[in-house]
Amino acid sequence: MSKNIEVKKLDIGMILDRDVMDSRSGVILIPKGTAITKEFINKLINYKIDSVFIREEKIPEGVSNKELKDSYHNLEDALDKIFDEVKRENKLETDKILETMKDFVDEVSKERDILTQMRLLKKKDDYTFNHSLGVCILAIALGKWLELSRNQIFDLSIAALFHDLGKLKISDDIIKKPSKLTEEEAVEMRKHSFYSYKMLLDTKKFNNDILLGVLQHHEKIDGTGYPNGVSEKDIHLYAKIIAICDIYHALTSTRTYKYKDSPLRAADYLREESFTSLDSHITQVFLKNISRFYVGNTVLLSDGTTGVIVYIHPQDETKPIVKVGDKFIDFLKEQEIEILDITI
Fold it and tell me: In the 3-class helix/strand/coil scheme, how is 195-229 assigned residue by residue?
């Protein structure tokens, strides 16, 4: 099965289902079966090609978790209503979503391969909405890996789900701007964590742990974050967890101004930041556990070919061994190609 998709809506890692031809010369620009990269997208734009046929992903039988999928869509519907009410009426009604959250937290906590399930969930064409749900899922998983109590994980999930709610108070001209923000726009954008905190505070329904998780998710261990520039000992545990999940999900998602990075490159970035801005212990727990899901997954390489991860080096979870055809590529050693994405 193939699907015709506009070039501007292409995502890295999609597979071409038909040859892409230059209409004037008849030359094949990109052959069928090639995985889409940033370079190929730019090539299509340069040749003024509006759309291409993409192979629809076949989901192996039994891979999709129906209970998690149903729970996700229930939460998605509830969050959609909240986003709509905040945008239209500037009010926050949370009773319905808190009921839905309990089932969702249980389903995410039971799932053993959360990365695969996240890829299988159908998402809306709204980055802030999808990001809120994605960060929530990752935070629940990380809370479980850190052995938090069920009540702590539930509170953490609420903070993660609502951490970016304040962005609804910021103009779409800033939120969806495809280029670098001006200093004035950046100042306004940095207010979103306080806006989120204030909306939750005004409901008088959320405890201080949840409120601080929301308010402080952009604070940094070295004190250079915002809104208050507090350092490690004054940053709440939930905020430290959400900060890691927020960065990882943002880097591995396509945004209006940036193509997504591979989970491995995102993990590399988290490791670097753990020396200055992120909690080093929590980051290490996240990287160690998230890497367990990589083996057996297909990867897209920067030359347009695909391979399968067969081994993760314990000394560096971001540098796997990949099997491409009959050869093995060890990314612990320097290579001319890189991994662009991980697929199912």
Answer: HHHHHHHHHCCCCHHHHHHHHCCCCCCCCCCCCCC
Q: Which residue has the tokens 């370079």?
A: 39
With tokens 């959360």, the residue in question is 114
Q: pLDDT tens, 275-334? A: 999 999 999 999 999 988 888 888 888 887 889 999 999 888 889 999 999 999 999 999
Residues shown for the chain: 344
Q: What is the pTM of this model?
A: 0.84
* Cα-Cα-Cα-Cα dihedral sign, residues 162, 124, 38, 171: negative
**How far apart are the C-alpha atoms of 70 and 19, rounded to whole Å?**
37
Residue located via tokens 């506009």: 6
Cα dist. 327→46, 298, 308, 310, 322 in Å? 34, 15, 11, 12, 8
Q: Quick check: 243 and 217 in contact, CB under 8 A? A: yes
Biggest alpha carbon distance in the chain? 66
**Tally of CB atoms within 10 A around 157:** 26
